[in-house]
Every structure is written in C-alpha cells, then in structure tokens.
TrEMBL record:
A Pfam family reported for this protein in Swiss-Prot or TrEMBL: Acyl_transf_1
Primary location class: mitochondrion
Name of the protein described by the UniProt record: Malonyl-CoA-acyl carrier protein transacylase, mitochondrial
GO biological process entries: fatty acid biosynthetic process
Annotated catalysed reactions: holo-[ACP] + malonyl-CoA = malonyl-[ACP] + CoA
Organism: Gopherus agassizii
Broad enzyme group: transferase
Compartments where found: Mitochondrion
C-alpha cells in the first residue's frame, strides 16, 4: 500500500507529463484524494497538531531576485517555461533581474507572485513532504487565492495562470482610468473607518467628483485596515488623520483602488475566462476572501473570484475562521509559501498562539548557481 508520502512524491514527480502549454498542471489532486480516502498516513508521521495550513501572499510581496533559490526543485523551470508561453514574456528574467519598477506593475507582479508561491510549494514538498501530506486548509490573499486553489486541486496551473494574466491586465487598465490608490491605516479602538470614508466622499463631492469611492478594501488585523478609492479622498484622510483617531497612515505603492467598485471594469474579462476553464471542488478547505467561508463547489469559486475584485479582502475574518478551535485543541503548523512575510506579521497580530507555529518558506535561503539566461 502507498503511504501519503509515496503518493505525494508520485503526484509531484510526474509534473513533466504533457498538458496545456507543455507541462502537467501542478496540483495535488492525487495526493489530496489519498488523504481523504481509506488509507491514512502512519500516525508516527503526523505532527502532534491536527495538520498544516498554507498561506499564499498577494500583490506587494514581490522583490527582484525572488525564486532564484527555487530553480533546483522539480517542475519549477517547467513552470517558468509555461509562463513564458502563456504570458508572452520572460517572467523568470523579470523575477531574477527586474527592474523593480517593471516587476511592481500590476500586470507583471500578479503572475510573478502566483508562480513564486507555487514554486515555494515545490521546495516545501521536496524538503518536508509531510507538510504537504498533512495540509488541512489553505488561504490566499487576493491573487494568492488563485495559487491556493491550484494547490488544492481546484484549478489547473496553466489555466489559472492565464486567468491571473487576464485579471492583472484588466485591473491595470481599470486602475489607469481613474486617479486612485490605497491607504494603509493603523487605527485605535475608537477609530470609525466608515464615518471617515463617508466624510472623505463628501469632500470629493465638494470638489466636483461624481460618485466618489472611498471604502475599506482590506481588513488585515484588529485596528489595521486598508482604505481605497479616489486619490483626493485618501489625501483628505491623511490630512485629517487625527480627527479620525488614525495612529498612522501610509500610501501603498499600487496603481489603483483594488477591491472597490472602481475595479468594476475588470470583472467582465475575468468572468469570461473563468467560464472557459475547468474548476473542481478543492480537496482541502480553501477560504474565500469575500466572506471568509470555505468554498463548497466549483460555481461558488467561479462567482466569488469575480466578486473578490470589487469586494474587501476579509483577511482578519479569514484568520479567525481558519484558526478557530475549542479550548485545549492545539494549533496547526502554518507555512507562508511565497515572497515576503506579510501574512506572518498579520497572523501574529490576529492570533499570537497560532503565529508561534508559523514558518516562512524563504526563496533566498538556498544557494543557486548564477542564472545563465536559459530556463
């Protein structure tokens, strides 16, 4: 009989089989099916906690050089080869060499973070296969949700990458239509974010802006929000931060008001591509950014991935849903797979006990021969 570990190895090592774009989808369908079947991994191989949780980061975590230490792992170079065919440009070179300004553009960084996260899963499977075998839940921040769904067997790697490409291009185009942005806010207990946004919208109306947008777009952790909308509204909030009991405000280096109705023009292109690809029920729990609930079926995924573009990311609520447990039940090990450690920092502020079992799969830990320009 095959143990979960043997199935994991088989699932990942067969990654070179032919498929869309010339490489098999990177998904864990075979592995995850085994974990819900009759055969359980030997108890001695399971960690004392009930399982593991994988978190996939979103836009803003990218940096030049990410992925360099992952090229040695099975399938990673194939993933980059497929990406070049799907995207029409050399994503590997952009990740390794930059320039940073190009990597930071929405249409480039979303595919880059998506691929780098799944490449980090390859490293994790190679170094600690039991982490993959014992995974019970996954969540991804914004574009990270696509990587989480590929990992969970709900989406094919190549098709998901194409959807991310369409999403990123549509979001870039929508953000260029209106001067808009995102403002990170650290507040206090008495901060009233909705009232602050209302007054910022009224200010915009006084400037002659019709249907101004200013609303919470990310719930990060207690007293931390991201507010997005028209630039004039965000400038108003910065200038009046003391009135609203904001401790600190900082403009984020993004091109638009993501997860607000200013992204409405991006919904139709994404909806069209999601209708054309195969979506399956995930083999493990994957939590939605829109309502912090588990996805239950393929139509649910298709609908909420579109709704996510114009809805706030409820990450704080998702962390509560993932780690909610009865007193005395141990927390799972958590792994952030992808560039940056932002999700770990947020977890620390949401749930300190869960964070104590957090690890980050870092792209830069491994030494790798110099990139020679070939894949």
């Amino acid at each position: 009989t095959h143990t979960g570990r043997a199935v994991a190895a088989a699932a990942w090592q067969s990654g070179a089989d032919s498929g869309p774009g010339g490489v098999r989808a990177v998904n864990l369908a075979e592995l995850l099916q085994s974990s819900v079947g009759d055969e359980e991994p030997a108890p001695a191989r399971r960690p004392p906690q009930e399982g593991t949780v994988l978190l996939f980061p979103g836009q803003g975590s990218q940096f030049v050089g990410m992925g360099r230490g992952l090229l040695r792992y099975p399938n990673v170079r194939d993933m980059f080869r497929v990406a070049e065919k799907v995207l029409g440009y050399d994503l590997l070179s952009l990740c390794l060499r930059g320039p940073q300004a190009e990597l930071d553009r929405t249409l480039h960084c979303q595919p880059a973070v998506f691929l780098a996260s799944l490449a980090a899963v390859e490293k994790l499977h190679h170094q600690q296969p039991s982490v993959i075998e014992n995974c019970v839940a996954a969540a991804g921040f914004s574009v990270g949700e696509f990587a989480a769904l590929v990992f969970a067997g709900a989406l094919d790697y190549t098709e998901a990458l194409y959807a991310v490409k369409v999403r990123a291009e549509a979001m870039q185009k929508a953000s260029e239509a209106v001067p808009s942005g995102m403002l990170s806010v650290i507040g206090r207990r008495e901060s009233n974010y909705n009232f602050a946004c209302l007054e910022a919208r009224e200010h915009c109306k006084s400037l002659g802006i019709e249907n101004p947008v200013c609303e919470v777009s990310n719930y990060l952790f207690p007293d931390s929000r991201v507010i997005a909308g028209h630039l004039q509204a965000l400038e108003f909030l910065q200038e009046n931060s003391r009135k609203y009991y904001f401790k600190r405000t900082k403009m984020l280096p993004v091109s638009g008001a993501f997860h607000t109705r200013l992204m409405e023009p991006a919904t139709e292109p994404l909806a069209e591509v999601l209708k054309s690809i195969k979506i399956q029920k995930p083999f493990i729990c994957v939590y939605s950014n829109v309502d912090s609930n588990k996805y239950v079926h393929s139509k649910h995924i298709q609908r909420l991935l579109v709704k996510q573009l114009v809805s706030p990311v409820k990450w704080e609520q998702t962390m509560h849903a993932v780690y909610e447990r009865q007193q005395g039940v141990e927390f799972p090990y958590t792994y952030e797979v992808g560039p940056g450690k932002q999700l770990g920092a947020i977890l620390r502020n949401c749930n300190l006990k869960a964070w104590k079992l957090y690890k980050h799969i870092d792209k830069r830990m491994d030494k790798e021969p110099a990139y020679d320009g070939r894949h």
